[in-house]
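User: For a reading group we're discussing how well predicted structures match intuition. Take ABC transporter substrate-binding protein. Before you show the prediction, I'll give you the sequence so everyone sees exactly what went in.
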Amino acid sequence: MLKSTFLKAVAATALSFSTWASAQAVDLQFYFPVAVGGKAAETIQALTDEYVANHPDVKIDAVYAGSYQDTVAKAITASRGGNPPQLSVILSTDMFTLIDEDLIEPFDSYLSTEEDKKWLAGFYPAFMENSQTGGKTYGIPFQRSTPVLYWNKEAFEKAGLDPDTAPATWDEMVEFGKKLTVKDDSGNVTQWGVRIPSSGFPYWLFQGLAIENGAILANAEGNKTNFDDPKVVEALQYLVDLSVKDKVMAPGIIEWGSTPKAFFEGQTAMMWTSTGNLTNVRDNAPFKFGVAMLPEKAQRGAPTGGGNFYLFKGASAEQNKAAVEFVQWITAPEQSAKWTMATGYVAPRPETWDTETMKAYAADFPAVLVARDQLEFAKAELSTYQNQRVTGIFNDALAAAITGSKDPATALKEAQAQADGILAEYR
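Assistant: Thanks. Here is the predicted 3D structure of ABC transporter substrate-binding protein, as structure tokens, for the group to look at:
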């Protein structure tokens, strides 16, 4: 009887402590987007659940907020309404906008130990270009990417091309594209040579062409663009010529979202898209495929892309501390490896690639290393103050040239004048 009473008392005490601990748990709301196909949403939810299970003092409400555009809009709206998330993954290019709106705070205040500083220094420099400004760190790289070229090895073989060799230059992409463009007896194209999407956020893939031609679209301070640089004009003319002159790519605006499906169905032999689509392609391509760095003109090059973690203002010091600890955990090698293997996003820290998990994965699937190795030549993604307005202007200029309503030089000259009008106050 005494033993039973004692055990009941112990159980009651444990239950009481558990209830107290739960009541004292730090609550975090975490917005995250998914911009590509595959297992991204379920993987990030699984990682969050794993963290919460091992940290009973923290509760995280992971909210899938839609696309990147949806996520930043929801985060800004919630912040203005006095109910911001404590943490969100938002495009790295939205950093200046979030600063200008006074919605985020730097991570630096919560990274005081030598171990913290070592962790911060451990990210790839190319990814930090869109994460730091004014000597402060506003973003922590997470689901980061670069565009890469995917090719259908079977289509290459049928066209008499080496199935294991991708085009290394602009000229080779045209040369290969002509051999890969297939028409039926009626003269209708059944397979295009290459597909470079120009909807959604066309500036991103176009930026690959600009960088390869030696151009930088905007300065590091986010207050000056170079849209009418002759090298940018030349890059846009090349993109237009792929359809109009060389006839190796479908004319008009090419949809981002349907591009992987078009690749799977043999409508295009090559495509440019995010490395974040890598696992999706591996799981769904019904043929052998290859992955390569983007072809060069004056140099190799590609923009970085994808999302950063941001800390939103309005949280308590305790919440911010818990949020930073979660970010440190989810970007640590083993968790980062799980994320990369599930999605194809580039693990943002070299140490992840040194784990046995990633070494084994890369040995089995070498294509995963292409985007990582391309970081050596990568530049910051186009990002400015009033970023959505400025990139919207630039996207409109690209669309005008692609659809033939304006020539590239005129479209870009007008875009530069409009961007100058917006950004002058930030200089």
